[in-house]
Design brief:
By secondary structure, the protein is an alpha+beta fold. The chain folds into two domains: 33 residues; 243 residues, no CATH class. The chain contains seven helices and twelve strands. The strands form two sheets. Strands 1, 2, 3, 4, 5, 6, 9, 10, 11 and 12 form a ten-stranded antiparallel β-sheet that branches. Strands 7-8 form a two-stranded antiparallel ribbon. Strand 1 and strand 2 form a beta hairpin.
Length: 284
């Protein structure tokens, strides 16, 4: 009995030592490999509510939707915008519902997307969601500055007039090709009405249309910071309203929206290389 107690005591001491050593070793390995298991938040540069009321031919209609406490808890962020636009501000031309939701600092998050959430709201899915190219107008985009850090992702730039001051400003645009993940829905009690919902994400300065790739971009263990923005569109139409029309409207609207979004979002190049950005600014 005494022998057993002595062996147990020694085993406990050895196990405690190994656990402590493993913990120190794990932390050392994480630091040596520049792995960040906790993400730091990066704030918006401007409130999403300050996105312009006029975007190309699209004009705001109605009032911005405000979510109650229960909905905010479900959304899990207070940084959002729910607003409707229509061509020339005429609802008869078709209303495009825009929903933006911003998240930052999370180690992991499950985005609320139409193909998961709309059915819970009483809509019936008409087929599986699919990704479609979003032909965004890039005619005013230009290549990034030649002094941009050689190890960074290349972010195009665009110059446009600030919606308030009217002064020309330069913003980095997101990297990557644009796709829209689209799902068609139908109300059980209004089967002659088509509902199309589509979305994409801007995560750490790049774009994706799938929640799976979103996790790869926004929760990259080698990145200290993390953010993503969900850009979601919804349109209602009659039985002749097609998915192609919906995607075309979304592409046109997105081309005008993007400079406004990127003005509000963190500049990912500046987040990655703040000292270089500061030195360039001082040189100027």
């Amino acid at each position: 009995m005494v022998l057993f107690d002595r062996q147990a005591k020694y085993a406990f001491i050895v196990a405690t030592f190994l656990l402590g050593f493993s913990g120190v070793g794990f932390r050392y390995a994480v630091n040596a490999l520049n792995v960040f298991l906790e993400k730091e938040a990066v704030p918006l540069r401007d409130n999403l509510a300050n996105v312009s009321r006029t975007l190309g031919n699209w004009q705001k209609v109605g009032q911005d939707a405000r979510l109650d406490e229960a909905m905010l808890e479900t959304l899990n962020t207070e940084e959002y915008l729910s607003r409707s636009y229509a061509i020339d501000g005429e609802s008869s031309n078709g209303v495009l519902q825009l929903h933006l939701a911003y998240y930052t600092g999370f180690i992991d998050a499950v985005p609320h997307v139409p193909d998961r959430c709309f059915e819970a709201g009483g809509l019936r899915k008409q087929g599986l969601p699919d990704n479609y190219p979003l032909e965004v107008d890039k005619s005013q985009w230009r290549e990034s500055d030649p002094d941009q850090h050689q190890d960074s992702t290349s972010f195009p730039q665009v110059i446009y007039a600030h919606p308030v001051t009217g002064q020309p400003i330069t913003v980095h645009m997101p990297a990557g090709d644009f796709s829209l993940r689209v799902t068609e829905f139908q109300r059980i009690d209004q089967q002659d009405v088509k509902i199309f919902a589509g979305y994409f994400f801007i995560a750490n300065g790049e774009t994706t249309a799938t929640p799976e790739r979103l996790k790869f971009l926004a929760f990259d263990p080698t990145e200290r910071y993390a953010y993503y923005l969900k850009v979601q569109y919804t349109m209602f139409g009659d039985k002749d309203f097609s998915k192609e029309e919906f995607i075309s409207d979304c592409a046109d609207f997105t081309g005008h929206l993007l400079p406004e979004l990127m003005r509000c979002l963190p500049d990912w190049y500046e987040v990655q290389f703040p000292s270089q950005t500061l030195s360039v600014a001082n040189d100027q």
